[in-house]
Amino acid sequence: MSEGDLVEPGALDQVLILAPYRRDAAYLGQLLAEYDMAVTTCASAEELAGHLLSGPGVFVTTHEALTPALIDIVAKHLSAQPPWSEMPIVVLLDRASPNSRIRGQLAAAWPRSRQLFYQRPLTQVELVSGIQSALLARMRQREVRDHIEREIELRRELNHRVKNILASVSSIFEMTRRGATSVEALAGDFGARLTALSNVHSAVFEAKGESISIAEIAQLTFDPYRQMGISRIDAAGPPIMLTREAGTTLALCLHELTTNAIKYGALSVPDGRVTFCWDILANYGPDLSVLWQEAGGPPVVAPSRSGYGTRYLRAALAGLLGTKPDIQFVPEGLRCEVRGPLIRVACNPKAPADV
Q1: 273 with 234: CB under 8 angstroms?
Q2: 34-71 pLDDT tens trace
Q3: What is the rounded CA–CA span in Å between residue 350 and residue 341?
Q4: Which of 69, 225, 230, 280 is surrounded by the fewest CB atoms within 10 Å?
Q5: Angstrom distance (rounded) from CA 211 to CA 346
Q6: What span, in angstroms and rounded, lies between the C-alpha atoms of 346 and 352?
């Protein structure tokens, strides 16, 4: 972990104390522990540098402990903070110390920190309240961090989805163009196929209802390709109504698998076939079983590393059914299978009419 990777679980809740003289560290640690704060103490430059790597929530120190070397260690840590981070630092001053000069020096040395100065002696309530407020500020920073990470992941996923959609549109256009006998026929067929491609997005993303069937998801996903003459996609299974959220995830996974099959797999050659089937395994809970099987395509070679699409499938299907999917890059054809509790994804799964 680098100094900028302050993402260790629970690290931002820690109070790091540097007070090597007298019994200050023991007193502060005991006091804060009484208020259910997690405390770590250090007594040297080496210990301080190591503890800062974990990204403490608040750093508490006495001013006499801050030698030039220690001030430099803290400064280097602060300069390596990610943009969302501003580590609060609580400095305990003595009544006889040159407080104004100390404040000025630390403000210049640590520009990226929220500095709180307390002059001793001070009441326990005042100190505890100040540190609790600093931890609260740190919690807000953590929320900003989490929001930034979600935004980055959403942007990556959106970029990936847009690329896949554009690849599908390009494929539809090329296959339509080859068979077109006139500009009017090209425009009509291409427009119809784009409409079919958008149906699954409209049905799942914009549907006002709370459920959608697996059969409908499969039909809306595969129809654009079937209209292009790719009729080598078989889909079958019992009637099962999924929640809107589960339907969205399944639709995205089918788009991922279909796009991959057209680019590299069974649907990239005339004799390749794809089977998508689902079933209810009554002896397992009941469980929903979903299988994607390709055959007749080019020999499959396992990738040297997992691409975004494979990572997404694993994460999405695991989140959908609570178990990791079994994705096999066997030479005969890609196989993706997942099974999990029906109750996680189905609307009213106990009703016979739904299953």
Answers
A1: yes
A2: 888 888 888 887 888 888 888 888 999 998 888 899 99
A3: 12
A4: 69
A5: 8
A6: 12
